[in-house]
Amino acid sequence: MKLSNITLQNSKFSMQKENETFSVTRKVFKINQNTNEYDKTKRTFFVTDLSTLIDEAVADTKENQFSKENDFFFYGSGYQSWGFGGETEPGKYERKYIPIIPQFKKYITMPGDISFEENKLHGRKLQGHFVIYFRWNNVYLVVASTGNSPDSISKNNFSSLPPVEFSITRKKRILCCSVDAVGKKWNVNETVAELSIFAVHNFFELKDIIKLLYSSEASENDKRFSSYKKLSMFKNKFFACGWESWYNHYNDINEKLISEDLEALGNTDNIIKTYALPKTNNVVFQVDDGWEKAAGVWDCNEERFPCGMKNLADSISKKGYVPGLWIAPFIIDYRSEFCKNHIDWILRDKNGNPVEAGFNPLWGAGSGNDKPGLPYSFYCLDLSIPKVAQYLDILIDHIVNGWGFRYLKLDFLYAGMLEGKLTNGGASYEWYEKAISILTSRKANDKGEDIFYLGCGMPFELSFNHLPLSRIGPDTKESWDISYMKALRFSGRTSAHKNLQSTLGHAFWNEGIYLNDPDVVFLRNKNISLNEDEKKLIALVNFLFAGQLMHSDDPTLFDKKTDGPLTKEIETLFNTYENEEFGIENITCNTYFIFSKSGKYSGAINLSKKNITVKNKAFEKDLLVKKHSIIIVENKRR
Known about the structure:
By secondary structure, the chain is an alpha+beta fold. Among the domains are: 331-380, no CATH class; 587-634, no CATH class.
């Protein structure tokens, strides 16, 4: 596709925040003629030299010149929850995944082949999606895709725009911007994308402008977040809390085990009982994977839960918790009877073969007739089929009004954006938006009780309007890292390290784009390899830089002597910092300077494997920060 099909409309406007004015350049890209063919690759809509963007956004002469002459920190977010989100240091690139397991690429790679224009950018590329920035010391040059913001959608009267991908090489410094709209046939004057470009000088300015760009002008408080405030422990900021079954039991759960956990959660001195329950009546109790008959067969596994899911939800409600349930509505195990009965619902490629959605030995066959593709693959639904949309609507209604669950974790949502030969044509992003609208359409159940949704594994740019509370990083783990996955350079691997990088990297999104779910904290001493410093690090990063505290330790195993002291220490730290807002600045991709907006506290985070010394003018003396740890000091002189 040629850039000659694109018309660019430029405008400038100002944004006001705390008596400071910020200039924003708005670029709107439209189709200037009807297209006769469907998009077959990613469509490049904008190619520009970085110096041009610097001239548009960086007004100060010295800062402008310095930015043009020096390499930059690059902030790039992954396409969906599980991709890397954070800064890459000057001179460096994120290392590419070695695809020993090809299906894993579906977790971290935006669908669609690269376009001809992007192919001309030879060399290694820095890539990002949705929101990127370039940083030189304290100068942040931000390029944000804002076409799906609430105001842009309402003003332009469209449902959604395709997701944006950015790429740039350090040597040529040519920024290439493209959208994934494969299958789309464009009409004249249709909007392809909208970019907002601006410069700020610190984390809090960045966070404030992002919040203004992605909030609704109709209200100072973003309407997307208003109903979720009922989950919050605090009035001055959003912070939800709850317990989930995954990171201790994983999918090996049953009715007896969950019932014992439910009883023990309120009877032992775990962090949920001692810190969360006194602050809110809306603590979540979430039953994770393992309750269902099979992936894609969202019926109760009666061998594990003989009394059924309605009885389970009722039991959770009677204990005073919000009943939560994990579900992955777009995926399906090809071996299941449900799949065989609805074989025409499976997304297929142009050759008629089912499209692999990912890898899981529990959700797919390794050989035989039930293995239509790569071993241990699971598959996905074709969202363009009307009966699939009806099925999704009935499914959610059954879970919410039939069973009584009110907090639904919707997982593996990226599967709804995978490329294939859609039965009813069009582009995946259009059908994805419609399906997500259906899944999240119920804001209350038939009793009038609020329904909450947690997004996970979802495309960031296409999901924030419907799933305000969402995961913003890969799964965490009760160990620091997984060596074999690290050797494969898989950025979406389950590990405490990769999870923390993305939680910190997406911190400026919190309460602006998403209510950030960072995953869980670990305070136990059994079934875990994390040390005390690592547990404290995870707990404080989640508390200071995200919007939800989830816990997954087995409360029946809570021991006052071994688990109690750390729990009390974490509770004390939470109480100390709960009224502070913290900001962050990368030193390297693994080390960070942190600071409170009030100026009262400063500190550092070290995710690297070596002890470091952090020098900063805010400290009275240099800070020695041990590996995998966090340190916060009170500033005596302010």
